[in-house]
Automatic annotation (TrEMBL):
<comment type="similarity">
    <text>Belongs to the D-isomer specific 2-hydroxyacid dehydrogenase family.</text>
</comment>
<dbReference type="InterPro" id="IPR006139">
    <property type="entry name" value="D-isomer_2_OHA_DH_cat_dom"/>
</dbReference>
<feature type="domain" description="ACT">
    <location>
        <begin position="318"/>
        <end position="387"/>
    </location>
</feature>
<keyword id="KW-0520">NAD</keyword>
<protein>
    <recommendedName>
        <fullName>D-3-phosphoglycerate dehydrogenase</fullName>
        <ecNumber>1.1.1.399</ecNumber>
        <ecNumber>1.1.1.95</ecNumber>
    </recommendedName>
</protein>
<dbReference type="Pfam" id="PF00389">
    <property type="entry name" value="2-Hacid_dh"/>
</dbReference>
<comment type="function">
    <text>Catalyzes the reversible oxidation of 3-phospho-D-glycerate to 3-phosphonooxypyruvate, the first step of the phosphorylated L-serine biosynthesis pathway. Also catalyzes the reversible oxidation of 2-hydroxyglutarate to 2-oxoglutarate.</text>
</comment>
<dbReference type="InterPro" id="IPR029752">
    <property type="entry name" value="D-isomer_DH_CS1"/>
</dbReference>
<dbReference type="InterPro" id="IPR045865">
    <property type="entry name" value="ACT-like_dom_sf"/>
</dbReference>
<dbReference type="InterPro" id="IPR036291">
    <property type="entry name" value="NAD(P)-bd_dom_sf"/>
</dbReference>
<dbReference type="InterPro" id="IPR006140">
    <property type="entry name" value="D-isomer_DH_NAD-bd"/>
</dbReference>
<dbReference type="InterPro" id="IPR002912">
    <property type="entry name" value="ACT_dom"/>
</dbReference>
<dbReference type="Pfam" id="PF02826">
    <property type="entry name" value="2-Hacid_dh_C"/>
</dbReference>
<comment type="pathway">
    <text>Amino-acid biosynthesis; L-serine biosynthesis; L-serine from 3-phospho-D-glycerate: step 1/3.</text>
</comment>
<keyword id="KW-0560">Oxidoreductase</keyword>
Length: 387
């Protein structure tokens, strides 16, 4: 039985994919597999028997990735599974920032008892007039799963789209409309665009990237949309930019003591991925990733270990090894297996930064004493008999 614990609500269509070999009632302390959305895991204990964490979503800044890698815990996310939901919210955000639909709706609610509301409407409505998206310049910072969908949708709405992503993947580039202007210096986005939307992960290198220096380059009346993470924007500086009129509206999906109630901000309660479709997609992908890792040792869509996929094991046994990316680990493993009379029928060895992962399909069951010898090799973090 494999113990599974969910730290957040995970859609049942995903959880239903676990077979009877999984115990869904496990506590966090006893879990071998954890499913999580936004729960903050940085201060949580990581148990020795924890094998994997799957983030049903894109952002993994709530998970201590290095600490997990060091403990041989493979962390997965679900790339692209909620991208359409966020794209649709970004379009809504740009529209809400362009037309005062929120103010207009509030006016109607406040005047609901006025018998002459229809007449009063025609006088009052000029206070809520806005501007169109068509023909405006949109800067998209980060052209991954979400950014590329936003860029393409904005092209379809008649916007002039500028895209910036120095690390753009080949796949993302293939999916991007050729009408998107490729920007190599993000400052050009700040200078040129009427709307700017950000879709990059929260990393040390991206925190505060939209800051006072960026606002100083912008035109008066720029609209900023942030459905990525609050830390990407210097929110003290954006408060000042809203007061000065440099920024006309700040739409953010992340309420915090600085943004909640901020004049000129439209603050949403982290709803970007909150559609039934996105929640289902994320849950299904996350559970499939966990099952593939636990049952086959395969790693697909990890954010702290390399991809490594040998399919379903057809040999007698399979051993999975999380280890440091240092010389001679593989030769030491093969020597120990060879000395034990175990033949390796197939193997894979992949690395990612400081960490590596290896799978060995072997011709006989390996006893515990051999596994203990493998585990004692310097640089080996975790050894698991998958089959
Ligand atoms: N509001 C929500 O509910 C919600 C939902 C999903 C994702 N998100 C956030 O959005 C982020 C992006 O999601 P995604 O699915 O598009 O991820 P992704 O990994 O597919 O795309 C991120 C892109 O950012 C690019 N990038 C990294 N550093 C950059 C930089 N300094 N400048 C420009 N580009 C840079 C990468 O090359 C990549 O193409 C997530 O990390 C998450 O924080 C929020
Ligand atoms: O799980 C959620 O609701 C939010 C997910 C989102 O922030 C993400 O990074 O994928």
């Amino acid at each position: 039985m494999v113990n599974v614990h969910c730290l957040n609500n995970i859609a049942s269509v995903g959880l239903d994919l676990f077979s009877d070999d999984y115990n869904m009632e496990s506590s966090y302390e006893d879990a071998q597999a954890v499913l999580v959305r936004s729960a903050k895991m940085h201060d949580m204990e990581l148990n020795d028997h924890l094998l994997a964490i799957a983030r049903a979503g894109a952002g993994v800044n709530n998970i201590p990735l290095d600490k997990c890698a060091e403990a041989g815990i493979v962390v997965f996310n679900t790339p692209g599974a909620n991208a359409n939901a966020v794209k649709e919210q970004v379009l809504a955000a740009m529209l809400l920032a362009s037309r005062d639909l929120i103010g207009g709706n509030q006016w109607v609610a406040e005047n609901k008892d006025n018998a002459d509301i229809a007449k009063a409407t025609e006088k009052a409505k000029k206070a809520f007039a806005g501007q169109e998206l068509k023909g405006k310049k949109l800067g998209v910072i980060g052209l991954g799963a979400i950014g590329q969908l936003v860029a393409n949708a904005a092209i379809a709405l008649g916007m002039d789209v500028y895209g910036y992503d120095p690390y753009l993947s080949v796949n993302a580039a293939w999916n991007l409309s050729s009408k998107v202007t490729h920007i190599v210096n993000v400052e050009d986005i700040y200078k040129e665009c009427n709307y700017i939307t950000i879709h990059v992960p929260a990393l040390d290198s991206t925190k505060g990237m939209i800051n006072k220096a960026a606002f100083d380059l912008m035109q008066d009346g720029t609209i900023i949309v942030n459905c990525a993470r609050d830390v990407l924007v210097d929110e003290t500086a954006i408060g000042e930019a809203l007061k000065s009129g440099r920024v006309k509206k700040y739409v953010t999906d992340f309420p915090n003591p600085t943004t909640a109630g901020m004049e000129g901000a439209i603050v949403l309660p982290h709803l970007g991925a909150s559609t039934a479709e996105a929640e289902d997609n994320c849950a299904v992908m996350a559970v499939k990733e966990l099952r593939n890792y636990i049952e086959n040792g395969n790693i697909i869509n990890s954010v702290n270990y390399p991809a490594c996929d040998m399919g379903v094991c057809t040999a007698t046994g399979r051993i999975a090894v999380c280890h440091k990316n240092v010389p001679a680990v593989i030769s030491k493993i093969t020597t120990i297996l060879g000395d034990a009379g175990v033949n390796i029928e197939e193997m894979a060895n992949k690395s990612r930064g400081d960490y590596a992962y290896s799978l060995f399909d072997v011709d006989k069951n390996v006893d515990d004493s051999v596994i203990d010898k493998l585990a004692s090799i310097e640089g080996i973090i975790k050894v698991r008999v998958v089959k």
